[in-house]
């Protein structure tokens, strides 16, 4: 956008039914609010914004003014290093003004105003969507020393401070120093991977802001879906981290209720593998299911430990099998063994629903392999997010759907580049246009 286009777009501002010319300085943008005709102004560099669609920025005095012409103290203006349109914020104007006080009461939100920490990785769309898809890895891509290169970014430092308060341990120290055995535990790994994905988003914001702000779609593998939903605006960072924390704890508890494990299989068809899974369930209560469809003839399976071990032996003896090995992931994830965790997660998601928002872009879900469109209500997402724990992750179908829907360029945001490796097997042309934002 040129400066002239920017001036043309932001000059008029509706105030008491009149078009008021506003001298918008360089670096400020007008943003459409949640209702037609409602706008507010955002400073691109700092994230400073109007707290109501009727506030105006006085360029000469360098302060915000209410619609009644009253200055708003700097401490009452929301400050953040991130651009934020995912939540509604309101002005704390001088209560001595009856009209201003009434205005505040009329629009006061039923929930508490967001704190700066909640704004991490919020994204401000700046134009029409580009054919870009953002991909986020899940559990299994973690490694000791991750975040080393991004830990000093202001936005990442803010997230890490918030995480320390919510998680009640130092996630950065765990990521940098391990031990690996602790980082691999589900209750530690999932919050770490959630933060790592969002740290990669901040790195992408610095290197290619348009790819982030104007992306057409997002998708994440298992835990990575929560990172994707955060970037899509469905949850702010703090809400997302609290949900991820509970999800991780619930999954680890469910995994500890019996002997469970997970394995990878490559070279066999889905139909053949499904038959082998059934044949591996010999005892009452045995569970052995396909947990992830990752790439053509590439899967992971999970369930009861003895049943999965039988499957591994059967797979290794089956013609065409290229690989069959146990994974470090510590449970029967994405099988019916996660039913207790699913119920806890659904309860947490329903509690978080008032803080959730419709996505700003397409989100391709694990459960269906299909997209949900911008504007989809969070109530329609909650059941799908819960079902993900007990359902096969349809990663390959989701990626193919993104390509079919016009996504031509991908960015894997997070450690280890595993999603790019899978892309090579899913679509060779898309692989050539898949970039990695490693942390």
Provide the fold topology.
Blueprint: H1 3-10, E1 12-15, E2 18-21, E3 28-32, E4 39-43, E5 56-58, E6 63-65, E7 71-72, H2 98-107, E8 130-136, H3 154-167, H4 171-177, H5 180-183, H6 186-207, H7 209-213, E9 215-220, H8 224-231, H9 237-255, E10 260-266, H10 270-280, E11 288-295, E12 298-304, H11 305-316, E13 323-326, H12 339-352, E14 362-364, E15 371-372, H13 378-387, E16 393-394, H14 395-404, E17 409-413, H15 418-426, H16 428-432, E18 434-437
Parallel strand pairs: 8-9, 8-17, 9-14, 11-16, 17-18
Antiparallel strand pairs: 1-2, 3-4, 5-6, 6-7, 10-12, 10-13, 11-12, 14-15
Describe it for me?
Helix 3 (154-167) runs antiparallel to helix 6 and helix 9 packs antiparallel against helix 12. The protein is 38% helix and 18% strand. It contains 16 helices and 18 strands. Strand 11 and strand 12 (298-304) form a beta hairpin. Strands 15-14-9-8-17-18 form a six-stranded mixed beta sheet, with helices on both faces. Strands 13-10-12-11-16 form a five-stranded mixed beta sheet. It is of the alpha/beta class and 439 residues long. It folds into three domains: 3-114, no CATH class; 130-255 and 336-437, Malonyl-Coenzyme A Acyl Carrier Protein, domain 2 (3-Layer(aba) Sandwich); 260-326, Malonyl-CoA ACP transacylase, ACP-binding (Alpha-Beta Plaits). Mean pLDDT is 81; it is low at 1-26, 32-38, 51-55 and 74-120. The protein starts with a helix and ends with a strand.
